[in-house]
Specification:
heterodimer, A: alpha/beta, six-stranded mixed β-sheet, four-stranded antiparallel β-sheet, 12 helices, B: mainly alpha, 9 helices, flat
Chain lengths: 282, 265
Amino acid sequence: MNSNILSFENVTFTYAPEDETVKPAVKDLSFSIQDGEWIALVGHNGSGKSTIAKLMNGLLFPQTGKVSAMGRMMEEESLWDIRSQMGMVFQNPDNQFVGATVQDDVAFALENNGVPHKEMVLRVKEALHQVKMEAYFDHEPHHLSGGQKQRVAIAGALALRPRLLILDEATSMLDPQGRMEVIETIRELRRATGLTVISITHDLEEAAMADRILVMNAGHKQLEGTPEAVFLSGNQLTTMGLDLPFAMRMTHLLREAGVELEAEHMTEDELVDDLWTYYSRK
Amino acid sequence: MMEKMIFGRFIPGNSIIHQMDPRAKISFVFVFIAIVFIANSAVTYGILLGFTLLVVFLSKIRLYFLINGLKPVFILLIFTFFLHIFFTREGDLLLDIGFIEIYEEGLRQGIFISIRFLVLVFITSILTLTTSPISITDGIEVLLGPFKRVKLPVHELALMMSISLRFIPTLMDETGKILKAQMARGSDIGSGPMKERIKAVVPLLIPLFVSAFKRAEDLATAMEVRGYRGGEGRTRYRQLDWRFVDSLSLLVLAGLAGMLWYFRV
């Protein structure tokens, strides 16, 4: 129980509590996340995943149920303490850049938490190093690409040395290259520090890299499991408006066409390896 | 046109003026503005002009660049010059061509006021040209510090300023995009009579406002999540560094004031 970094217990939240006709955005949701896990929370628009993000860091409080983080219940008193151990990166790279330059922006959360100046300088450097943006120390945001801005946002979250990093659709406004940059950064970070990551996304390619996937639909948890297990229920995902990763769709179609592939492939590389060794195996 | 304007622009550099503490520079400019009014004779105005040129020289900003960038100001300058020449009627009559009468005092006043104006514009431009907007904000925050006691929200004002500065390029980009989007839909902003042109700005402004509000909301959320709770208990990443040059600059300014007072008529 102690290794639970975040948990929801029977959480229900509605934006209009008085109005009975409005369906709750999140309905009787329970899940828990262990220290060091990478969780992907997927669902199409309106499935309640953004609301969950807001419940996670106390921007919203549930009407019923309990949200707890870092072993403490989310309340007014514990709120700021919990937030200082939790980093969050949002969708729009421009709208979360507070500082005038890269270093100012990374320092923002540190300033808010009263970190002494000397310590701050070290931590800003360290955080920028972790996302490989040291070279852009003094750059202004409008001279950076979307992917670079998101990496700075991640550095801004990391500077506080959080235990948990939440990515709320952090890659959805980026071009493919920017998306790869951000995902690579997260993978590197996980390798180096074992940081707990929750990525909220509708991109199943990104979700495929997680340890565990939670699929949200109309405010409740539809599926939960490893990427392999979740993707096997292909049709269910498609009816919820989620697109399977390209490699998986390809595998399905090839199998339907009578090509006997070895496994359900989640990445293009695996699929390609299987295909080019196909004849020699026979 | 916009590229040549140097109001509020910052030219990075490493001159002695660039390296000065923003607090020193801002105080310097304010005291200087007061001092300028001591001057009242040819010698004192000469000293002021000489001093200003020295500051320009020290800032390593080319005089040509400064003059070229301040062209719109010169129009105003020439206008006030002629205003004084034509409307001051004191002293000896110098020139009389029909309806134009120029008096000695008018010419003197015209020249003096022009120098005063020029000197003020140069010095304030040097401040913004050699100090990054964010340093100016830092400087203002510290200088206004004492006013916290009378409940002036100094920290909030400084933060507002720095966020506005941060979002200027973002909103400029956005304006460009909206402009193109409206043009693609057949709106014609650049031509027609004045009334039509003003009307055409509305479909530009409304989407811009909508998006600015959206951005503000997102930014507020992002700030809250990153632990922003107002100015209390906050530490500062940017540290200001008051050095010998800064004290010296204010001493020089005091010297200048003394000199002007001495040569004043």
